[in-house]
Q: What sequence folds into this?
């Protein structure tokens, strides 16, 4: 749980909202992901582009995909707020995001059935140095318009993996692909800690916050938060039920879990 300015939360939502999928076939990515760590709250959205904005917080480790319509409703609620308290919690066995300011409250369901958006892995891949220089980059006007809310000025870095990295100030970074490129500078400067995988060990096995796993029956599960010291991890069904269960229960019934690819 932490408290932030409503305007700061609105700003990071606005910076990434334009990157929702335009194709109806990509409904499984029609979301904004709120991704929390000890130091930062990130907002992430995209399909062929990915936009990541962040604000400093004193939080815990959790991840919450929010359907785009719910994110829009939250954005409207924030218009009349000043400072809001944000809490990731389980109510009736389902993960929720709860926002409060005084007597005003808003609860948003966590869409654990949405697809994984592995933005950390994608940024790490984009930061790899290409083996050769590339020529000029060609972008359409609508490509440029996607980044108009990133900030007043933006730096464009040609990176590895046939991608451009777009930066605006210290707290916005984006990924645009595919393109041709040339290389100069380090596009991930200042973001090294942010793009690391968030792993924890349980029963001698590593698990990653945000990752999706399958049990031996084929059921899909998502790790939505890293447990606090002394607490048992909770895993959430990556389907319409979004049921939350202790990890030990899922392992006892479904056997060892297999990490699914992105």
A:
């Amino acid at each position: 749980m932490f408290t932030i300015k409503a305007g700061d939360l609105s700003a990071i939502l606005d910076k990434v909202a334009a990157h929702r999928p335009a194709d109806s076939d990509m409904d499984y990515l029609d979301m904004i992901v709120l991704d929390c760590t000890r130091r930062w709250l990130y907002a992430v959205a995209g399909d062929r582009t990915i936009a990541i904005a962040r604000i400093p917080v004193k939080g815990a480790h959790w991840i919450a995909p929010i359907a785009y319509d719910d994110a829009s409703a939250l954005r409207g609620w924030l218009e009349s707020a000043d400072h809001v308290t944000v809490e990731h919690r389980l109510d009736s066995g389902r993960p929720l995001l709860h926002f409060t300011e005084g007597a005003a409250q808003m609860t948003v369901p966590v869409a654990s059935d949405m697809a994984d958006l592995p933005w950390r892995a994608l940024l790490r891949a984009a930061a790899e140095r290409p083996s050769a220089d590339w020529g000029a980059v060609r972008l359409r006007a609508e490509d440029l318009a996607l980044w108009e809310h990133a900030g007043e000025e933006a730096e464009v870095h040609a990176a590895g993996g046939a991608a451009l990295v777009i930066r605006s100030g210290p707290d916005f970074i984006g990924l645009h692909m595919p393109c041709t490129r040339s290389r100069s500078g380090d596009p991930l400067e200042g973001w090294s800690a942010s793009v690391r995988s968030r792993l924890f060990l349980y029963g001698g096995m590593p698990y990653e916050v945000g990752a999706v796993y399958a049990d031996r029956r084929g059921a899909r599960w998502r790790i939505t938060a890293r447990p606090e010291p002394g607490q048992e991890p909770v895993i959430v069904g990556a389907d319409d039920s979004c049921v939350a269960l202790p990890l030990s229960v899922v392992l006892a019934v479904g056997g060892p879990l297999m990490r699914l690819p992105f």
The mean pLDDT is 87. The two ends are 29 Å apart (CA to CA). The chain is about 15% helix and 35% strand. Residues 6-17 form the longest helix (12 residues).
